[in-house]
Amino acid sequence: MAGIEKRVQWLNLQLNLLALTFFLIGGLLLWAWYYDQLPPEKQHEVYHTALLVSIPVVALFFTWFHIWLAIKMMFLPLRFFGIWQYSDTGIGIGWQGVIPRKAKKMGKIAFNCARPYLMGPKDWFARVDTSLLFAKIHPMLERVARASMASVMRRHFPSMLAKDGRLPAGVEDELVSIVMEKVEESFPEMWHKVTDKLCDPVIGLDNDGMIVSVFNEHKELLNHFFLSMGDKEFRFIERCGAALGFVCGLIQLLAFNCLDATGRMILLPGTGFFLGIFTNWLAIQMCFKPCHPRPVRVFGWYLGSIQGLFLKRQRDVATLYAKLLVDHFFDFHKVIAYLQTIPVWADLQDIYNENIQNMMKQTMGKLVTWIAPVAVGSHKLRAVEDDLVGASAERIAENDELQQAASQYLAIATDVFRSNAVAMQKMPPDEFERLLHPVFQEDERLSQCGQTRGG
């Protein structure tokens, strides 16, 4: 679906560019024909008038263009494009979007600005009822237990199995029943140990590690994150800049008409240079200042209040921010994938293995009774125990149905989206504006590009 939307957007862009090209070419041809029909004495007058009229039009177009290009250069290209760069920094003879180039720093900013106001892993996991979670995954765990026992028994005691390669029905049911009973008894304790590790601010999830890692590896996601939040602000900056460029172009027109040839040569590039600085600066200020609503009164009459455009949208942006977090970071599979890349994963595996081994020791009595006729030794039992632990862990990791059931329950129980959206809607405006404002503060090239192209 997302691919179709991108293709439609690309097609619309191509059609708009094509229409604009035809319009410009048609206008130029019409103008050339009209100009050619004029007598020589009129051509000079029309040329001078057209030159004056073109000043605010050109100011509008180029002010819009340099702001549009500067914004694009903030986000594109995702990877360095050029001849040479210094030590994979994105700096050199070429260009890389400022935001992708500073992915780690922007990820830290996104986390640090919002984290003090958001619920953390400890709050989420406190909402989980382990008995309900176990009930949701019980059927899948039981199938895992049966399959694990069957595979391990086939490896170590093939002669003890039935013709279908499985344990005798009565024995299998009794063993699985004991295993599931022990798992249910130990599940709350194991959950508590796991969540304690996950809530650790140093090695767990309650830090900027995951966001920074995902942003750094998927720079297109970082762009999507900031572009989604600031979509209206970026469009406003483009349009506001164009309007301001037109107004300043009118001022240039008045001054141009009063100067001699030398003054005119200095006026346009000189004012264009400062126009680039001013339009960018003013447009950004209108997005973020004032932070708090400020009343406007004329002769004591209250006309309304003004506030930065981004801050006026706090409620909508907070909801979008919370949704982006849930969709791209708090997804069950993404969390598991991230955990496997950091040291805490070894601790989680140790907790799981310890829990399973304790449970196996409690159930080995029944298993030993059943396999007594083959008179196995302690080393054999140890091998069986280790294989059962490994087989069950492997099947749990591959069981999409189990993961889906756990993910659905955790999403409902923790209610991360609603909690975060409400919390961010209540953030102080001066703190909330830091979610997007750093994009512009980091990108001083936005103004530099503006002033250079303006000149």
What does this structure look like?
- With 455 residues, the protein is mainly alpha-helical.
- It has a domain at 120-206 and 329-433.
- The chain has helices at residues 2-37, 40-75, 98-101, 103-114, 121-126, 130-156, 169-198, 209-217, 219-229, 231-257, 261-288, 309-312, 314-328, 332-339, 344-371, 378-398, 400-414, 416-425, 429-432, 437-442, 445-454, and strands spanning 81-85, 92-95, 294-298, 301-306.
- The strands form 2 sheets. A two-stranded antiparallel ribbon has the order 1-2. It has a two-stranded antiparallel sheet with strand order 3-4.
- A hairpin with a 2-residue loop joins strand 3 (294-298) and strand 4 (301-306).
- Helix 6 crosses helix 16 (378-398) and helix 13 packs antiparallel against helix 18 (416-425).
- The two termini are 43 Å apart.
Summarize the structure.
This protein has helices at 2-37, 40-75, 98-101, 103-114, 121-126, 130-156, 169-198, 209-217, 219-229, 231-257, 261-288, 309-312, 314-328, 332-339, 344-371, 378-398, 400-414, 416-425, 429-432, 437-442, 445-454, and strands at 81-85, 92-95, 294-298, 301-306. By secondary structure, the protein is mostly helical. Helix 6 packs antiparallel against helix 17 (400-414).
**For the terminal residues, how far apart are their CA atoms?**
43 Å
Calculate the mean pLDDT score and round it: 75
Structural class: mainly alpha
Report strand order across the widest sheet.
1-2
The 3D shape can be described as elongated
Q: In terms of per-residue confidence, which ranges show pLDDT below 50 for 5 or more consecutive residues?
A: 449-454
Transmembrane segments: 12-34, 46-71, 236-254, 266-284
Keywords: Membrane, Transmembrane, Transmembrane helix
